[in-house]
Amino acid sequence: MRGKVVSLVGGVYDVYTLNKQLVKVKPLGILKHKKIKILVGDEVEVSLENMTLNEVYQRENSLIRPRISNIDLGIVVMSLVKPNYSSYLLDKFLTLLNLSKIKPLIVITKIDLIEDRSVIVKIKKQYELLGIKVIGFSKETREGLEEIKNEIKNKTIAFMGQTGVGKSSLINIIDPDFERKEGEYSSSLGRGKHQTKEVILLPYEEGFIGDTPGFSSLELDIYKEDLASSFPLISSYYHECKYSNCLHKNEPGCKIKELVSKGLLDPENYQNYLDISDELILRKDRF
Ligand SMILES: Nc1nc2c(ncn2[C@@H]2O[C@H](COP(=O)(O)OP(=O)(O)OP(=O)(O)O)[C@@H](O)[C@H]2O)c(=O)[nH]1
Ligand SMILES: [Mg+2]
Ligand SMILES: [Zn+2]
C-alpha cells in the first residue's frame, strides 16, 4: 500500500496511507544497507501485514532546513515583532526554497502588534517585485486567514521560519483539532522557545500541512556561486550577465546591477545578497 511519511519518532515512521489510515511502520533493513534516508514527506510503499516500510519513491524535491520532502509550497513565516522582522533572514529562507525549486509564499504574522500599516504595504511591494506573494496575518483578528486557506488548499505545504513567529499558532487557527503546542516569545532570550521539536505533516483536506521546528539563526551551507544563481529574483536574470561566473558585485555587464539601478531589484534585497555572499566561500577555493 502506498502512503506518505508524516512523522518520525525514535526510528518508527508514521505513514498516512492512500486509504487514509495512519500506520506505524519500521523500515526494512535493506533500506539501511542501501543508505536510503527516509524523510518526512516521502512517498513510500508499506506492508500492512508486516508493518514495514519497504520502498521509498523518487522525491520531487527536498529541503535540508527543515528536513522535509515533496513540498508544493514553502511558506516562510516571519513576524513583524517578537521576533523582529528581518528581510535578511527572509531572503535566506527564499534562497533555500529556490535552490530546492519549491514555490515560495510569505506570511507576515503578528500584524495586530503594530499600528503602522505602511510597514506591511512596503514588504508586500518589495516582495511582489520578486514575484512572491505576501499575506499579512494576525492570530488575534484572523486577518489573512481565508487567503492563506485558499493558498494551501489541496497542496502539501510546509510552514518554516524562526522560533516564535507563530507557525503552530497559525496551524491551530486553520484547524483547532490539530492541537499544536504553542510557545511563548521570551523577551530575555530575544527569541521563541523552540516549542515545536519535530517536523510533522498534518493531513488537511486533500493535502498536508507541515509544521516544522523554528530556528534562531540560519546558516546557508552553500557556495557563493550557488547564491549568485539562486538568490530571489537574481535566479531569473543571472544568465543575462556578461560573465557566466558573475557574482554581481563589480563585474562589467552585470544584469543584476542594472536591475538595481533601474529600481527593478530593491536595494535592500541587493544589500542582503552582498551580505550573505560575504558569509560564504567560493566553490573554486576548495580545489
Ligand atoms: N499578538 C500575536 N501573537 C501571536 C501571533 N501569532 C503567534 N503569536 C504568539 O507567538 C508565540 C509563539 O507562537 P508559536 O505558534 O508557538 O510559534 P512557532 O513559530 O510555532 O515557534 P516554534 O515552534 O518554536 O518554531 C505564542 O505566544 C503565540 O501566542 C499573532 O498573530 N499575534
Ligand atoms: Mg511551533
Ligand atoms: Zn551579474
What's the quick description here?
By secondary structure, the chain is of the alpha/beta class.
Describe the structure.
The chain contains nine helices and 15 strands. It is an alpha/beta fold and 287 residues long. The protein folds into three domains: 55 residues, Beta Barrel (OB fold (Dihydrolipoamide Acetyltransferase, E2P)), CATH 2.40.50.140; 150 residues, P-loop containing nucleotide triphosphate hydrolases (Rossmann fold, 3-Layer(aba) Sandwich), CATH 3.40.50.300; 63 residues, Ribonucleotide Reductase Protein R1, domain 1, CATH 1.10.40.50. The strands form four sheets. Strands 10-9-8-11-15-14 form a six-stranded mixed β-sheet, sandwiched between helices. A five-stranded mixed β-barrel has the order 1-2-3-5-4. Helix 2 crosses helix 9. 35% of the residues are buried. The site of zinc ion has 7 residues, from helix 8.
List keywords for this structure.
single chain; 287 residues; alpha/beta; OB fold (Dihydrolipoamide Acetyltransferase, E2P); Rossmann fold; Ribonucleotide Reductase Protein R1, domain 1; six-stranded mixed beta sheet; five-stranded mixed beta barrel; globular; binds guanosine-5'-triphosphate; binds magnesium ion; binds zinc ion
